[in-house]
Amino acid sequence: MSEESAEPKGRPCPFCGASMMHRHCKYVCPQHGVVYDCADTFY
Known about the structure:
The chain has strands at residues 21-23, 26-29, 33-37. By secondary structure, it is mainly β. The chain has a three-stranded antiparallel sheet, with no helix packed on it.
């Protein structure tokens, strides 16, 4: 019930805007591969 349909599935890729998947300590874009990992600060 906390899901909002207006929100994208995952964090958007900074290069193409596609929803990224969160895998372990990494955000993976379907087009660009790993974009962020746990060493990156992006908040």
